[in-house]
């Protein structure tokens, strides 16, 4: 098994050739299997579902967005995650993207394989539009007198705004500390994943009160030295289980408005016992921390050009994006859904117009933002870097994130066309290194 390499093949069979306990982290975006078995085989005169090797049914029809790799149920198979568990070092973390309608099945498979579910990160994004059917338009208004009362009712199609990322770990051998010494991996890189802020550093003379015995009535609980940090940690705020994209961050700030920290009011002191480290004098001004609610979360700012970076020499193909990165088109006026087009007098129905899809060298439909994948690589990074495995590499974003964050990677991908794209993008990343170029 070699690192910094893409293996061509089915992930389950390929993993069987890897040795035990050789991977530090697994970060992957597997198929969501959004096209149900009922839609594929439940229609009149459709081919019957067959019992076979791919789970309960041999699902040979195409899946989400016409991609055969979304068919089947590989991400729901306990056997796959048992292989991932075997190759992952004890204490290692697995981060797995899922679809809102199907991730529960994948989570159960991950847990049943032996992993311990620790959390679920919610990746929030601002773009996207609900794919819904207008019920009133399906009713014949001439024959159905009640058709009007169904105006505004649509099928179950809420606006897509998030994807869950399952956070799980392979059980430790002993304590976290013992596991870290033995296998070189344990927990998360919390300091590496902190969210930066501009709040000035304040210190206090107040002695942290543990109990009535240690509390001094003579000094009213104050020390002679200004050593206790009173402000937010200068390393940054703790990483949260919510991650925003840039557009979602702006939307959140529009709703929350700008908030500002007030003056500190402490007991027994005019200044409240708070000291400005830079001046060494009592602090009477505001804390200085202000902004929208998005400042408490990591905001992944992705470049619009990163998808095709390094793929200039590849053949261009038609591309249809996933639900978080493509604008919808109005069925009435044929204009896109954005802030410049008024659809108030239209039917309110939108769709994804594939005939106007752009030509692109990277035609993978579900490419994740590089900044997001870099953050996940940093959050799970070991003191020595550690090897990241992506069993569903796609067009290679996880591997590029590893290159930019100083980690080794191993990718598995069964589609030859995506391997060609991934190799071109990785080569470009290795050549330039600096993520600012993406």
Kindly summarize this structure in a few lines.
The protein is an alpha/beta fold.
What does this entry look like structurally?
With 438 residues, this protein is α/β, with parallel strands linked by helices. Among the domains are: 5-33 and 73-124 and 161-191 and 366-437, Vaccinia Virus protein VP39 (Rossmann fold, 3-Layer(aba) Sandwich); 196-240 and 247-292, no CATH class. 20% of the residues lie in helices and 17% in strands. It has helices spanning 11-15, 37-41, 78-87, 103-112, 135-138, 176-183, 246-256, 370-379, 397-405, 416-432, and strands at residues 5-8, 23-28, 88-97, 116-124, 162-169, 202-204, 228-229, 242-245, 259-260, 274-276, 281-282, 290-291, 298-300, 317-318, 329-330, 350-351, 359-360, 387-390, 408-413. A nine-stranded mixed β-sheet has the order 1-19-18-2-3-5-4-8-13, with helices on both faces. Strands 7-6-10-11 form a four-stranded antiparallel β-sheet, with no helix packed on it. It has a two-stranded antiparallel ribbon with strand order 9-12.
